[in-house]
Design brief:
With 296 residues, this protein is mainly alpha-helical. It folds into two domains: 70 residues, no CATH class; 150 residues, no CATH class. Helices cover 73% and strands 1% of the residues. It is built from ten helices and two strands. Strands 1-2 form a two-stranded antiparallel sheet. The longest helix is centred in the C-terminal third of the chain and has 53 residues.
Length: 296
């Protein structure tokens, strides 16, 4: 018998027979053991049953995601063509304006990822749905990547525009806080603690993302800031850029959106597979415990 299960088995065995309600307690103990990355010995009963229970759960790809991946590659190629070659330099910013074709769409989809995380967290806390919890978890990881891209591209853009890579500007500071909040969510979600406890605590952090996004979005309106005002709309009407530059920006939105969707689908499926593997391991361990009780 696996060492991490022996204590639970002794507590819930009377005269060599398992108590009927031991399954639930054993499941909790096994889940805690799983969070500590404890596994059964190779070739044991648990390993054999786990392999059988998870047969076929070895891929996150499908025909649809492969098509989506190809479209994302073509989108990025089109973005490189229009953003670096065909689009003209800006009259005031010059060549550095090309960074905005990645920076602005990345910021938009980082916000979308944060919204999905908050919605998934709220639904998980309300309904207890593991599906929504996985949506929140996957979205938070992708939003973290895109928020980091926003900060890096913003720093590259700021050096020739402002003369420095970083200033404690309202937009930059609030975006940094958003990144720290996302990292905090992921850190709590991956703590070596009870699964239910850490997912609920991470979900509470996830609820704070949308308010932070609103602060980031409105920071250029609420405070005096070096960051430019909204690029596409001025006072709600009229685009500040036009022609091929505007088209290149839209190509950026399409390309980055395809990449975001591809990453999100695969990360959600990977999280779902991990969850299925964990559940299969718990069921197999309980079956092993029952078999030991019958033998004894």
């Amino acid at each position: 018998m696996h060492p991490c299960l022996r204590g639970s088995a002794q507590r819930f065995a009377v005269g060599g027979l398992a108590v009927g309600r031991a399954d639930e307690h054993l499941r909790i103990a096994l889940r805690r053991g799983r969070d500590l990355r404890l596994r059964s010995p190779p070739g044991g009963i648990l390993t054999t049953q786990l392999d059988a229970a998870t047969e076929g759960l070895d891929s996150t790809g499908s025909r649809a995601t492969r098509v989506l991946g190809v479209l994302a590659i073509f989108g990025l190629a089109a973005l490189a063509l229009f953003g670096l070659v065909l689009s003209p330099p800006d009259a005031s910013q010059g060549e550095v304006v090309r960074i905005l074709y990645v920076h602005v769409p990345s910021a938009t989809f980082a916000y979308i990822g944060c919204f999905l995380t908050t919605i998934g967290s709220a639904m998980f806390l309300w309904r207890g749905s593991s599906w929504w919890e996985l949506v929140a978890y996957a979205s938070a990881e992708i939003a973290t990547v895109f928020t980091a891209i926003v900060l890096v591209t913003g720093m590259i853009w700021g050096r020739p525009t402002w003369g420095v890579y970083w200033v404690w500007d309202a937009r930059l500071t609030s975006t940094s806080m958003l990144l720290l909040l996302l990292l905090g969510y992921l850190a709590v979600r991956r703590l070596p603690a009870d699964h239910d406890v850490r997912t609920k605590r991470a979900a509470i952090i996830g609820l704070l993302l949308v308010p932070n996004v609103i602060i980031v979005r409105q920071s250029v309106q609420w405070w005096r800031t070096l960051h430019q005002k909204p690029t596409l709309l001025a006072n709600g009407v009229g685009a500040k850029i036009e022609g091929l530059m505007l088209f290149s920006l839209f190509v950026g939105f399409i390309a980055i959106g395809l990449v975001f969707a591809w990453l999100l689908i695969h990360r959600f499926r990977l999280a779902w597979l991990e969850d299925q593997l964990d559940d299969a391991g718990l069921d197999a361990a309980i079956a092993e415990r029952r078999a030991e009780g019958d033998v004894s």
